[in-house]
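Today's session is about reading a structure prediction critically. Students often jump straight to the picture, but the first step is always the sequence itself: look for stretches that repeat, for charged clusters, for runs of hydrophobic residues. Only then move on to the predicted structure, which in these notes is written as discrete structure tokens rather than atom positions. Here is the chain we will use throughout the hour.
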Amino acid sequence: MVWMPTDPQRIGSLARLLMNPGLAPGVIYGRCPVVPESPGLRPGSDDRGYQMYAHVTWHTWKRVGCVDAAAAIDVRSAVASACQATGVRVFRDAVLANHVHPVVSFRPDIRLSDFVRLAKSVAATRANRRVTGTVRWARGYFVTTIHKRDLSRATRYVADQFQRHPDLIPRNSRRPGML
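Below is the predicted structure for this chain, in token form.
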């Protein structure tokens, strides 16, 4: 016997979740239910008022260079979806063949772990729909907070990733039907 919710609100939530298969389980498009609303913050307040910035990185399983040009587009799209769902703002990002570097701003009520979880899972899901097993991420990620005065240095570092690692620029796929 299969359990089905009877509450209309839960049925609507379940329907929205099933219509957005690119999102992680438990995440409804457009909002992240695991982030509680802090009583001291205004909803929709601007991140510039808090000036909280971070440099986030994560890499592929065993640092295999499995992110090609098509998968890089999927990663950028997944990062944008994760931003919309969690309220994180990306200043600069670089998607290389074996790792990803976004520089982000966030509010104090946002958990960056939710942003990274969504970005990694949605990126892998989208890339692996194209070709099964294309992208596999390693466990975990690295985050370092950035002071406002160091923000330009961090964004310049991320912008220069293709010059620093010319061998890790995502290449066009050789598979038929791909970019």
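Discussion point for the tutorial: The domain at 50-168 is CATH 3.30.70.1290 (Alpha-Beta Plaits).
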